[in-house]
UniProtKB/TrEMBL annotation:
Residues 221-312 form the SbsA Ig-like domain. Coiled coil: none annotated. This is Tetratricopeptide repeat protein. TPR repeats lie at residues 62-95, 96-129, 163-196. The keyword Phosphoprotein does not apply. PANTHER family: CELLULOSE SYNTHASE OPERON PROTEIN C, TPR REPEAT-CONTAINING PROTEIN MJ0263. It comes from the Bacteria.
Length: 468
């Protein structure tokens, strides 16, 4: 098979490609030149695949249309290429490259939102470095810098030896006003390639911004509570009459909107404290600016503005009484790359083959390397004391009926905390556990809920529900 390369693809072989993509989910049993039989261990079903069914009118296959589209793409005939990719998709929607190349073409036509849709479709089939990268670029072009930053971090988690990716991260961070973080990104790029042009130019630019007397950057903070009170300490007593909402400000980075805050009086003469009038938005990036108009009690002003960015905690999923969570995006926060697991598209079945409505596996079996990959889950949810109860089921995956892990006596352990206090501990779970662990926790008065699993190995976390 040939590698995915938007600049020089020459074509793909139909039988080899389809066999490859299909065999990632199913076991090949028998095959001839034009047909193959696969077996699904999850459903005990057999699947017959006839390659001739992948053709449209005039005998053209989906891959014929795709190859013609790639040729047009390489000729920069992007609109014509998209038409061919659409034809390919209409015949066969199971190859992520069809959507990937359509996304490339849309990107170069400046249709960034449509490109994001195409890349998302590609990512639904296969998580790929290329699709994530161009999704980040598309988000950047739409000035959605916070989202772009989150996606480029995923790209770097795939490949942390690319000066291009670190340079692009630096560019995003400049637009977010995070100059010190941008400088770090450019330095990472130059560590890999000391003469990389974009990193050299970007570093010069951000150093000028830092040294231009504009602002002093304090270290960024993350997982900040939605009602958090910030305290900024100075090395001398502050004239509190110079502290007001005009020279102490908080902005939402993605929109530039000024956030109303309350300046708090405190006993420490060397400190400024403030909190939002209404809670910050969850999973959002903000920038604090303390302007140089703030003065000490001796009348000395700050030499430059002081700035700091912070990201708020994730908001927990909202349920009605007994309502299931229909979409797992709230829990599967891939932008934080904390969860490394599998959403179990083949079916949410436990070791007893009981099927569940929703949930996911923490850790998964990688059929390509024939080994289990461990997963970590650590998420905190801001509940605000508005929920009474949390229920869920924890149980080993059905896949252990086919393949045991290296250590069957330890496939993970779940702990749940409320406001820092341990509310639930599953203990170490083994593959021999046939009875699901039913979680039922009283959340009366709990503001923050934290769920933690370390070193999960295909551990099922099913039907999580909050009750108000």
């Amino acid at each position: 098979m040939e590698s995915k390369n938007p600049n020089g693809t020459t074509g793909y072989d139909l039988q080899n490609d389809v066999r490859y993509y299909f065999s990632r989910s199913y076991m090949p049993i028998a095959a001839t030149e034009n047909e193959a039989i696969f077996y699904s261990p999850s459903s005990y079903d057999y699947y017959y695949l006839d390659f001739s069914n992948l053709s449209g009118g005039g005998g053209k296959t989906a891959y014929d249309y795709f190859n013609e589209g790639v040729t047009l793409y390489n000729q920069q005939k992007y609109q014509d290429a998209i038409a061919q990719f659409d034809q390919a998709i209409s015949l066969y929607s199971g190859d992520e490259r069809f959507y990937l190349y359509k996304g490339y073409a849309l990107y170069y036509l400046g249709k960034y939102q449509d490109a994001i849709t195409a890349f998302d479709n590609s990512l639904m089939l296969t998580k790929s470095e290329e699709a994530y990268y161009f999704k980040a670029k598309s988000l950047f072009e739409l000035k959605r810098y916070t989202e772009s930053r989150a996606i480029i971090l995923i790209v770097i988690s795939y490949n942390n030896q690319s000066p291009e990716y670190y340079s692009y991260l630096g560019t995003i961070l400049i637009n977010l006003g995070q100059y010190q973080d941008a400088l770090d990104a450019y330095n990472n790029a130059l560590r890999i390639n000391p003469s990389y042009p974009e990193a050299v130019a970007g570093k010069d630019q951000v150093e000028d911004l830092i040294n231009d007397g504009g602002s002093k950057q304090l270290p960024s903070k993350s997982n900040v509570p939605l009602d958090h009170t910030f305290t900024i300490n100075f090395n001398t007593a502050v004239n509190k009459n110079t502290v007001n909402s005009s020279n102490v400000q908080v902005y939402e980075v993605s929109t530039g909107q000024l956030i109303p805050i309350s300046i708090l009086s405190g006993s420490n003469p060397n400190a400024i404290s403030f909190k939002p009038v209404t809670n910050y938005k969850p999973s959002n990036l903000y920038r604090v600016t303390v302007k140089k108009d703030v003065k000490s009690t001796s009348g000395k002003a700050l030499t430059q503005n002081v700035e700091m960015t912070f990201t708020t905690v994730s908001q927990g999923p909202v349920y009605g009484e007994g309502q299931k969570l229909d979409e797992m995006e709230e829990l599967l926060d891939e932008s934080s790359y904390i969860l490394k697991g599998d959403q179990a598209s083949e079916g949410l079945k436990d070791i007893n083959f009981t099927e569940y409505e929703n949930g996911f596996f923490i850790g998964y079996y990688d059929v390509l390397i024939e080994k289990y990959r461990t997963g970590q889950f650590l998420k905190e949810y801001q509940l605000g004391g508005g929920y009474k109860r949390f229920t869920a089921t924890v149980v080993p995956s059905y896949y252990f009926n086919y393949k045991q892990p290296e250590n069957p006596n330890d496939i993970g352990r779940m702990k749940i905390y409320g406001d820092g206090q341990l509310l639930y501990d599953s203990g170490i779970i083994s593959t021999s556990m046939k009875t699901p662990k039913q979680i039922d926790i009283n959340l009366q008065g709990v503001n923050r809920l934290k769920i933690e699993v370390k070193n999960g190995v295909s551990l099922g976390f099913f039907n999580p529900k909050l009750y108000n």
